Amino acid sequence: MPDVLSAAAEPTRRRILQLLASGPRTVNDLAASFPVTRSAISQHLGVLAEVGLVVNRKEGRQRIYSVGPIGMAQLRTEMDRFWTTELDLLLTDATALRDPPASTDP
Fold first, then answer.
1. Which residues contact 7 (CB under 8 A, 6 or more apart)?
2. Spans of the chain below 70 pLDDT
3. How many Å separate Cα 87 from the centre of its chain?
């Protein structure tokens, strides 16, 4: 079973999440935004649903997908854990290397 970070890291799945952020959509609506088959989008949605990043409800013969609030909260928690003090220090060091202090030697 993939974790939320792994599931969201794949570019197609990230784009699906971006599309769903604007509101619920059917598989057909989502598939229209990609150069892959509806079946491929369904498989991506299955991975996202497995980790709770999307949820769906059935309306007639269609499934309507939307962002899963619990899974998104878990993703946010994982991202917050990732962005630690060490990464802040790494950014500070990288900035210092890019912009070294001016030399005072004549």
1. 13, 47, 48, 50, 51, 53
2. 1, 85-86, 100-106
3. 20
pLDDT reported for residue 102: 64
Distance of CA 93 to the CA centre of its chain: 28
Q: Which of helix, strand or coil describes residue 61?
A: coil
Helix axis angle for 11-21 and 38-50, nearest 10°, is 80
Closest to 17 (Cα-Cα) out of 59, 48, 57: 48
Number of H helices, E strands in the chain: 6, 3
- Which residues make beta-bridge pairs with 25? 65
How does pLDDT run across 72-94, given as a tens digit for each residue?
999 988 888 777 766 788 888 88
Domains of the chain: 4-98 (1.10.10.10)
Query: Is residue 63 classed as helix, strand or coil in its secondary structure?
Result: strand
pTM of the model: 0.76
Cα separation, 33 vs 52, in Å, equals 22
